[in-house]
Amino acid sequence: MSRSRRSKSKQWRPSYFNDTSHRSHHHGSSRRIRTWIRLTLLIVILLLLSWAAYLLLRPAGRTSQQECYAYITDTTSSEALIATITKELEVKNPTLLRSVARLVRIEERLRPGRYRLSPDMSILSICKTIKYGAQSPVRLSFSSIRTQEELIDKLTAPLEMSADELRTLLRDSVYCDSLGFTTETIRCMFLPDTHEVYWTVSPKELLHKYEQSYHKFWDQKRTALAQEIGLTPVEVSIVASIVEEESSKTDEYSDIAGLYINRLRKGMALQADPTLKFASGNFTAQRIGGELLKADSPYNTYKYKGLPPGPIRYPQMTTLDAVLHHTAHDYLYMCARADFSGYHAFAANYADHMRNARAYQKALDERGITE
């Protein structure tokens, strides 16, 4: 075929073979469709994520409910825990709570403890609190208690430890000695201060808290004041316990403390009525005599001179300071006032004391109080 023919055939080719406008339009439409699809998917994903975030982060429980505490022990299962939380908080979406708990593998990280939960916490927050062991501390405090059994009950009631665990440790003479106390004077170590501990605290960890508090109170200044009056910190605590049992009137604590310190210095028996009540366990007795005086107990300060072997109650720290800063006077005797005001009549000699005592006994007789 000649060159002229090939050239002519080329000229007869349809024009649309060389027209790119149609292809460009087709490709542009495809791109726009793909873009809209991507955008639609993105919007759907964002909506789903937003909805998931809302479900995870909104308050899990009903606002009308109060906070609760979840207690986890070594035997607590994740199923039982989730069931408890669902019930206590009235969780709106229990299924989601169980799903998230499984997702974060709570069952692998259950740590014994006490966890504060509230209805306004989110499901995610609840699961994180449990998983990471974010325990809520327990606030321990006590006041106006006399016996060690009362103390044990007060301290162990809000904790996982049993009363027997703490009781056993407080009766361990070797352990008490390691802290610088006897099984009687160990009670002096417990100052009525407030402590924060975890629900799972061990007995030794708990006692360490109170030991630290004791040594913080008995700093160099207070220890020096005790030495100046010839007493140890333990003896100050014992005197303070008697003072506090003698009267409910804090404004006469310094006078009562001064009286007992005067008797100790003179080698006199304290003859403190509250010690007889402690020895007998009869804390309501209003007339001291008869069988109470016969009690053969080291806490009977009518029978045995000096201080009893331990405190007869857990005194306030302000009472300890009242002993350290006691009033200097010459009183050796005191008796409840006949007006039943709760205050005492003080005397420097026995004759004056007997007049005060007869007046009070007469008042008791008039009211028919025999014991």
From TrEMBL:
* Principal EC category: lyase
Q: Name one Pfam family in it.
A: YceG
- Name the InterPro entries on file: MLTG-like (IPR003770)
Site annotated as Important for catalytic activity: where? 246
Q: Which GO terms describe its molecular function?
A: lytic endotransglycosylase activity
Enzyme Commission code(s) on record = 4.2.2.29
Locate the compositionally biased regions of type Basic residues.
1-11
**Name of this chain's protein:** Endolytic murein transglycosylase
Q: Which organism is it from?
A: Porphyromonas asaccharolytica (strain ATCC 25260 / DSM 20707 / BCRC 10618 / CCUG 7834 / JCM 6326 / LMG 13178 / VPI 4198 / B440)
Whichever gene encodes this chain, its name is mltG
